[in-house]
Amino acid sequence: MTQYANLVGGRWVVGKTASLNINPSDTNDVIGEYAQASPDDVTAAIDAARHAFPGWSRGGLQERSEALYRIGAEILARADELADLLAREEGKVLREAKGEVVRAGNVFRFFAGEVVRGGGQRLASIRPGVDIEITREPLGVITLITPWNFPIAIPAWKIAPALAYGNCVVFKPADLVPGCAWALADIIHRSGIPAGVFNLVMGRGAALGDALLAGTDAVSFTGSEGVGNAILMKAAANGQKVQLEMGGKNPLVILDDADVDTAVQCALDGSFFSTGQRCTASSRLIVTNRIHDRFVEALQAAMGQMVVGDARAPDSMIGPVVDERQLATDLSYIDIGRTEGAKLVQGGERLERAPPGFYLSPALFTGCTNTMRIAREEVFGPVAAVIRVADYDEALSVANDTGFGLCAGICTTSLSHASHFRRNAQTGMVMVNLPTAGVDYHVPFGGRKGSSYGPREQGSYAAEFFTSVKTTYINAGRL
């Protein structure tokens, strides 16, 4: 079997060891063998990036912009092929996989424009004859660490701004999804970007973590809260700039005046699409008294129509869980919910398919309280907890009673309640009559509390992390 190699300093480097990439829809299907980088490979990648940084950061803006545009154009031209790979290795159904690929291509095209759109400020000093210029400069070499649930979109929205603003990159994808990462690295490698500007090192974070944090200027990480906090401690000791996205326990509030069909569609999409494996998933459905029973009945009926199957099958609405370990985690939380006294009213069973895969029927609990573990801890699977509340005030209180703060949604026809919720939800993002999952590529992404740390990702706000501000004073009379 051909081994897909790491990219270090413009060269493809085969590892001493490799891992098999397994299709979660068909565990007999091996997608490929992917090299495992060593700490020495990571060090070599950092050195190559450091060597490439002066030329890349000070080079022509037009060349940089055109390279990013070529990357985006190739991703979009190969959208069907890349979507098939994504569905095959991560388990996201083809419709969602293609949407993710298109998003990645658009991200690169957006930042191709940002390269030449960057500006600054010129201000008068309080001292006569002195001018002030405020500009942004690249940080240097940046470590990017991405999760398995969005194997091309999240890498794109980290890599594209890093390169656009003149930085060099050492990229480590999640070990579960090396295929999309390698395909993206190959596209970037052939885009005309100089050797060493972008480097790919594949492998387990436990083996490469220390090397990835040694000698770079910043680290951007998306993943679990525990790993993120460990990175923060190490990076702080190294004096590195840090950006962390670490999950959510997102509420979807459904008020008595909501349109039931809209509320059900928002809950289906937010709670169960992408197999619930999204940090923006609606894992807490907070429903007021008078609509509660109607909503639950309608949601159960809709869930009963959902087809769980092979991610690449045209009729599948939900694919498999990403791997056996995540499936075990999901099933353990379903057992925890039962033990805590919640009522499992729909799904929650492992499904057998031919060929074999990691299939789980979406699970819906009722009779939940906000103190239960299934209402407080991120399951990261197709498991939703319905919490009954008396009114809007209690709904808002329960929605905010969490250690996370990524996204919150509300279904209502009341402009007053929608406006109040938008102002008072303790999250970085709010959705009104929309699923909590699903965001645009040109606007900021991020949260509060335990969900996020550091500047926002995406859009023009990405400059806050990927650049450093410089203030220059000029005595024009002496020039």
Give a structural overview.
By secondary structure, the chain is an alpha/beta fold. It has two domains: 3-246 and 451-474, Aldehyde Dehydrogenase, Chain A, domain 1 (3-Layer(aba) Sandwich), CATH 3.40.605; 250-432, Aldehyde Dehydrogenase, Chain A, domain 2 (3-Layer(aba) Sandwich), CATH 3.40.309.10. It is built from 15 helices and 25 strands. It has helices at residues 39-58, 61-77, 79-90, 94-117, 153-164, 178-189, 205-212, 225-238, 260-272, 289-304, 324-340, 373-376, 392-400, 415-424, 463-466; strands spanning 3-4, 6-8, 11-13, 17-23, 26-36, 121-124, 130-138, 141-145, 168-172, 198-200, 218-222, 241-245, 250-254, 282-288, 343-346, 350-351, 359-360, 363-368, 383-389, 404-405, 407-411, 429-432, 448-449, 452-453, 467-475. A hairpin with a 7-residue loop joins strand 16 (350-351) and strand 17 (359-360). Helix 3 crosses helix 4, helix 3 runs antiparallel to helix 6 and helix 9 (260-272) packs across helix 10. The longest helix is centred in the N-terminal third of the chain and has 24 residues, at 94-117. The N and C termini lie far apart (65 Å). The mean pLDDT is 97.
